[in-house]
Every structure is written in structure tokens, then in C-alpha cells.
Amino acid sequence: LNYPHNHMTLLYLIVCAICLLSGTGYLETRTKNGTTGCASTNNRPVTILLWHWPFGKAYPLDGDVCWHLYKIPGCNVVDHRSEFLNADIVVFHQKELASKKQKLPLNLTRPLGQRWLWMSLESPQNHGNVRQFANVFNLTMSYRRDADITVPYGELQPQDGEIDDVVTNKTSLVCWVVSNFNRRHKRSVIYRQLSAFVKITVYGRWKKAHLPAAKLLSTISRCYFYLAFENSVFKDYITEKLWRNAYLGGAIPVVLGPPPEDYKAVAPPHSFIHVNDFASMKDLGTYLQGLAADAMRYKEFFRWRREWKVKLSTDWRERLCKICTKYHCLPQRKVYTDLHAWSNV
Ligand SMILES: *[C@@H]1O[C@H](CO)[C@@H](O)[C@H](O)[C@H]1NC(C)=O
Ligand SMILES: *[C@@H]1O[C@H](CO)[C@@H](O)[C@H](O)[C@H]1NC(C)=O
Ligand SMILES: *[C@@H]1O[C@H](CO)[C@@H](O)[C@H](O)[C@H]1NC(C)=O
Ligand SMILES: *[C@@H]1O[C@H](CO)[C@@H](O)[C@H](O)[C@H]1NC(C)=O
Q1: pLDDT tens digit string along 200-217?
Q2: In this structure, which residue's CA is closest to atom 14 in ligand 4?
Q3: What is the gyration radius of the CA atoms in the chain, in angstroms?
Q4: What is the atom index within ligand 4 of the atom nearest the CA of 135?
Q5: What does the alpha-carbon distance between residue 123 and residue 102 come to, in Å, rounded to a whole number?
Q6: Which residue ranges form the domains of the chain, and what is each CATH number?
Q7: Which ligand gives the minimal distance to the CA of 135?
Q8: pLDDT level of residue 245 (50, 70, 90 thresholds)
Q9: Whose CA is nearest to atom 14 of ligand 3?
Q10: Cystine design at 66: which of 75, 121, 236, 293 (Cβ 3.0–4.6 Å)?
Q11: Which residue lies with its CA nearest to atom 13 of ligand 2?
Q12: Ligand 1 center–CA 110 separation, angstroms
């Protein structure tokens, strides 16, 4: 007898029927962990051609690499340009295009249905010119949540094994690791203001206190707080400074980057402190000191570890194989008419 409710149910059924009948050749499947995946209804393998390796560093692609490394079936990732005519998707990494080390093969005619994919994991401040690539690409792959393929620097997975204890052997209040110091960066301004109120231990080339990679996490583990300050502030641009340095190091991240909503969408609940949430750096400093002095409240920032663990992603092959898991959900016809406008937010 609840009319609005019944109307909604009917609408839902109609929408579902349209989805099922639209015959696009894929089924949407909702997985147990709540993410949406797509299953193919035909078993033709997908061929992904990588036109050039990011930063010139090639990884072996022998055998069925997506299956062997990631248990992703039906995904043929190749890096031989002779496969151009067989490729469903051709992948171009932005950095080498911008530096002109590589060129788009605009002289070749794309086979019908082949899509070109633009790939970049750097922020618009660092990825170089993209204005020249209007009307070229059909798909994007980046850390952005609204890219066609999202490849974040890290993500959460359900915790199933042992829960590692919170590291409690803390000797520094706030730590920061910075190599590329630029006083005009927003992060440098915030650092200067905050350091007037709390002691910040700084590592990295800037302070001539180089921290070898092997010592990074153990050093951060002895800090109550770690400044996970991004080098530039852009939508969804959240890097290994949060995912690896802070979360795996076991210090509470104090983050500077995109707005709190972007962090809340991907990071564990009650796991970070966002600079924007404080009216002044004096307030932030006072808050950090209070938290470090209160073991109960401090530990609450690590409760998420009982349910979640962090998975880092660093291998380009994993990113390329991921295209296949999304292949049947990708937009069939799409052109990035203004890649500059899309990417520069
Ligand atoms: C097309 O351009 C690519 C990239 O610049 C080059 O490697 C290739 O030899 C060219 N092919 C033809 C048929 O001109
Ligand atoms: C969710 O499950 C799917 C399929 O089981 C898997 O591919 C995906 O990586 C999982 N995502 C997370 C966040 O665990
Ligand atoms: C705590 O850290 C200090 C170095 O700061 C180290 O010497 C000591 O062994 C550590 N203790 C534990 C229990 O890990
Ligand atoms: C891909 O982009 C090209 C260049 O704009 C366009 O001609 C082609 O129709 C697009 N293909 C698909 C499948 O969207």
C-alpha cells in the first residue's frame, strides 16, 4: 500500500530489464566485498598492447603473465608493436609522450573498435603537456576515481590474517621526509607554520639527512605522526606517502592534498588527520600534542587494522592486467575531446 515504494520497485525492475536486454555483451556482477566487477559473456581473450614502457623500464611479459601473477584470465598483455592490428586497446604512458621520447603512431590506421588508452600516475603539475592530445584517446588510466581504469597507489583489502600490533615505541612527535623541497609548495608553507608549534623531525635530501629506503618504514614507526604531504594538490592525488609511508610505517598520517572527502572515499575510517580540518596550525599542533599524550585516543586511529589491510600497487603489469578485469564494463564509444580539461583538476 506504499505507493512511492512500489513505484520505485517497478522502476528498478524496468531499469534492470533494460540493462539485461541492451545486449552489450556483459553482465554487471556485484562482488562480496561490494565492488562492482564485470564478467564477460564471451571468452575471447583481450589483447592489450603497451606502446612503450613507463620510464623506459621493461618488465618481462613471458607466458600468461596476468594469469600467473594476478590470476586474471583471458588477458594478453604484449609490448611488440607488430601486434598493433590485433590489439583491442593500445596503452600510451604520458611521461614519454610529453618528453617526446615517444610519439603517437598517428600515421597508422586504427582497426575498427580499437581504443587508445592514456596512462599517467602523476599529478597534472608533473605530467607535462596534454593539450596536444585532444581527440586522440578513448580511455584513461590514472589514480583518479573517475578515470576509466582507476589505479590507486594503494587500496584496502579485508583483513583476514593476523593483526599486527600498533607500534608503540615512539621517540619523535612529528616526522617528515622530503627530498624535493620547494618553498613555494603549499606543503612547505604548512610545514613552516606548524613547526612553530611542534617539533618536526625532518629526513631526506633537503635536510641532508638521507633516509635509505630500507630504513624508511622503521624510522617512521618511531614517530607518533607522519606528514603525508603531497607535492601538489589535485583531485584524488593521494600517493604512497599515505599508503606506504604512514600506514605501513605505523604512524598516524597528517595529510595535505585533496579535500577530506577524497581521503574519506578511499582511506580507512578514523585513520588520518587532515590539515584542512583545523582553523590554524596552532590548533593542529595542540591537537597532535594532546593525542600523543593520550594512549587510548591515539590507538583508536589504528582500530581499522582489525578489519582492513593496505595493498600497495607498484608493478605496471598489474595495472595493465587490470584493464582486462574492467574491459567489458568500459565505455564502448568515447573520445577525450579535451584531455587537458579532464586531467587538470
Ligand atoms: C608510424 O609511426 C611510428 C611511430 O612514429 C613508426 O614507428 C612507424 O615506423 C610508422 N609506420 C609507418 C608505416 O609509417
Ligand atoms: C573485490 O573482489 C573482487 C573479486 O573477488 C576483486 O577483484 C577485488 O580486487 C576486490 N576488491 C577489494 C578492495 O578487495
Ligand atoms: C625502541 O626504539 C629504540 C630506538 O629509538 C630502540 O633502541 C629500542 O630497541 C626499541 N624498543 C623496542 C621494544 O622495540
Ligand atoms: C577512439 O577515438 C578515435 C579518435 O578520436 C575515434 O575516431 C574513435 O571512433 C574512437 N573509438 C571508440 C571505440 O570510441
Answers
A1: 999 998 888 889 999 999
A2: 333
A3: 23
A4: 5
A5: 20
A6: 26-151+314-343 (3.40.50), 156-312 (3.40.50.11660)
A7: 4
A8: very high
A9: 169
A10: 75
A11: 157
A12: 13
